[in-house]
Write a structure and sequence with these properties.
alpha+beta, Butyryl-CoA Dehydrogenase, subunit A, domain 2, disordered N terminus, binds flavin-adenine dinucleotide
Length: 404
């Protein structure tokens, strides 16, 4: 890992002209159309153009997060690879968690190969008995000398079959209330005792998995944050997850609605009632896009706030409505799934190759990353200041709370 450009050494304040000149330097050094993606992304990281708001040496320049848009707009049209698509969980959630809570050694070890996509990450939070209420989880980690011994089961773990590392939250003290007795670890998914089994979705693919951990040993140095502080660390992951899922900013008329317009044009539809529907969906997609742009501009460096749930709630519903409309435009053809039901384990997550696939996959949008009901609770309580949900299990020790 190199520090890269001499321009970085004297960098005190970063402005748009500086990052654009670094982009030009990167493009002059490496042609994104011909060099392997990981090589281009590695140099992008070294120049501080990976996450521009991260510190120097960690893939950033300590600049404003808004500068990332300028970087992406400069690099992507030239054919630069998209790091999000290669490693969505690592890029959107793992990196902000490591940079916020990790030791210097962890930041140096994990961030670069995560950004280049050479090491895929997954998130081991949900359990069969702990999804919306993830703080009630039961996977145990017990300290044995300098290592933690982990036993338990996780579920719905996206990309675990490809992952080299996982963000794991486990119970380290059952004698205190549920939010206080958890600790956060980076787990090596290739360690002895980690077993990954596929779970197939209605798309016919197994993006996600069950993960069983039996006497898995994790060095204490791979803890993220203090013992018992895992809930606070998890919130960094969860808040970033909501923004990663619901805060995407496609180009104007792009994304899901772009696909609908393409189908409309291709089939030469003229029905005015359907056109009204399409325009309604287009306008709502544009309002969401502008809202997400505004939210990203207001967002300062650090963990996103609870208002990140707005984009999550709205996009989940809109994606379903737009994909349903598109399938409707296709008529009988819309009932066919071009690639059939391959029953395979894809090398990507959240990519929607055709309208029928998008229609089926969008069903998960109001569940993944926290359900719409939970997101509404967060918005009601933490943004609007409404009275809280009834919670009787917040104060007793975790071990005394009845569980199913
Ligand atoms: C495609 C996909 C990918 C996923 N990837 C991952 C991953 O990589 N890692 C990971 O850890 N998890 C992952 N998940 C799991 C996801 O986070 C959980 O499914 C989600 O949090 C809901 O938990 P649950 O499925 O246990 O449902 P439950 O928590 O059992 O909820 C069931 C229903 O009850 C409602 N409900 C629950 N509590 C309340 C309440 N207090 N108020 C109102 N309504 C309530 C819910 O909204 C829901 O409708 C993924 C899920 C999907 C669909």
């Amino acid at each position: 890992m190199t520090g890269g450009s001499s321009k970085l050494a004297d960098m005190t304040a970063v402005d748009e002209a500086t990052v654009l000149s670094l982009c030009d330097q990167l493009l002059a050094e490496l042609d994104p159309k011909t060099v392997p993606a990981h090589e281009f992304l590695g140099r992008q990281f070294d120049l501080g153009l990976a996450w521009v708001h991260f510190p120097v040496g960690n893939g950033g320049l300590g600049g404003s997060p808004q500068l990332q848009k300028a970087i992406n707009e400069r690099l992507i049209p030239e054919g630069a690879p998209l790091p999000y698509g290669r490693n969505p969980i690592g890029y959107g959630m793992g990196a902000p968690t490591v940079v916020t809570h990790g030791s210097d050694a962890q930041k140096a070890r994990y961030l670069r190969p995560l950004f280049t996509g050479e090491e895929i990450w997954c998130q081991l939070f949900s359990e069969p008995g702990a999804g919306s209420d993830v703080a009630s989880l039961g996977t145990r980690a017990v300290l044995d000398g300098e290592e933690w011994v982990v036993n338990g089961q996780k579920v719905w773990t996206t990309l675990a079959h490809l992952a080299r590392f996982g963000m794991l939250i486990a119970r380290t003290d059952p004698d205190v209330p549920k939010h206080k007795g958890m600790t956060y670890f980076v787990i090596d998914m290739h360690a002895p005792g980690v077993e990954v089994r596929p779970l197939f979705q209605i798309t016919g693919e197994a993006e996600f998995n069950e993960v069983y951990m039996t006497d898995v040993r994790i060095p204490d140095a791979e803890r993220l944050g203090a013992v018992g502080e895992g809930w606070g660390v998890s919130l960094t992951t969860l808040m970033n997850e909501r923004v990663a899922i619901g805060g995407q900013i496609p180009s104007r008329g792009g994304g899901f609605i772009g696909e609908a317009v393409k189908v409309w044009r291709k089939l030469g539809h003229t029905d005015p009632a359907k056109r009204d529907q399409l325009m309604d969906l287009w306008v709502r997609s544009e309002v969401l896009r502008l809202t997400n742009i505004r939210a990203s501009q207001l967002r300062s460096v650090g963990t996103p706030g609870p208002e990140g749930s707005i984009g999550k709630v709205i996009s989940a519903e809109l994606n379903k409505q737009v994909s349903e409309f598109t399938v409707g435009l296709l008529g009988a053809e819309g009932m066919l799934k071009a690639d059939g039901y391959p029953m395979d384990r894809p090398h990507h997550a959240m990519l929607w190759s055709n309208p029928a696939q998008a229609f089926l996959r969008a069903r998960a949008n109001s569940i993944e990353g926290g359900t719409t009901e939970i997101a509404k609770n967060i918005l009601g309580e933490r943004v609007l200041g409404l009275p809280g949900d009834v919670r009787t299990d917040k104060t007793p020790p975790w071990k005394d709370v009845p569980r199913s």
